[in-house]
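User: Need the bound-state model for adenosine-5'-tetraphosphate:
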Amino acid sequence: MTDQTPAPFAGPKRVLSGVQPTGDLHLGNYLGALVKFARLQHEIPTFIFVADQHAITEWQDPAKLKGQVREITAAYLATGLDPKVATIFAQSAVPEHTELAWVFDCVARIGWLDRMTQFKDKAGKHKERASVGLYAYPVLQAADILLYKATHVPVGEDQRQHLELTRDIAQKFNHDFGAPGFFPLPDALTQGPGARIMSLRDGRAKMSKSDPSDYSRINLTDDAETISQKIRKARTDPDPLPASLDALEGRPEAQNLVGVYAALAGKAPQAVLDEFAGQGFGVFKPRLADLAVEVLGPIGAEMRRLLADPAEIDRILADGAARARALAQPTMAEVRKIVGFWNS
Ligand code: AQP
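Assistant: Bound-state model below.
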């Protein structure tokens, strides 16, 4: 990390984000990321990709990967992304992502990557057996973002550290290659009540696709009965809901369910407590289940409808890839020149 004052980036605002096709999307992905994509597309030019290259940092069945990409694309469309407004594409359709990632591999420092907590969480006790790709994942993520000179990145709270690394890489590249302001220092957009949705089985663990228990999360494709059952079985404590947010401290499961209700209803958590203070979970959970079914039911139905026509999804992805490459190629051509590569 340099101590240089960042030179200002003078380019336009741009939004970029993505999701890995590594399993069923869940409520955390929806509230932490997807709802923001749909909103932002009408405010700032928006690029949303399916991160299939990130996905293979852990084993993926090659026979299923394309189908998984289509599922994420269907989720994007079903949650409101409009392919005529936003650019929607698969990461592997734009080879400049990995070309830029190599340059950034040579800019980022090992000490920076050693601090990434997500690698430690995902690799667990056996980090020698994790793929090099899993370790270098945040560098590819920096390339995803900076290839489009994106200024705003809507993500859940768990991605904040990776965004800090992206800023460090941009700043060091601009400094080392004497290209002030070439790359922006993008902002993570993590605000909102859905920034960190927790597991339904453990209020201290993040809701995650890779949690072995399906009861820990609500999937976007769950039917109404499954959603209600998962909320009914969600871990809670025996106390009624309090009147103030302060009194939820030390009650992570209660805090999480109030946060989920608030995010789904588009209300502040305090407004939820104003409505339910003094009530037990016997009253609160059925109301939350009804709300979750009301919001998620139509999304699951729309995903199923879209997935029945894979050719149309492929057409949307091909169109998006062409638009993405039109922006990525000139940036990569400039990077080759800045670095002094033979092929510039
Ligand atoms: N629990 C969460 N609450 C809020 N936001 C979340 N996100 C993920 N979990 C939560 C956000 O969803 C976006 C896409 O995430 P991803 O699939 O690219 O990777 P991830 O963060 O690793 O998601 P998962 O579901 O936890 O997958 P696994 O289990 O494979 O690690 C990101 O913006 C993320 O912040």
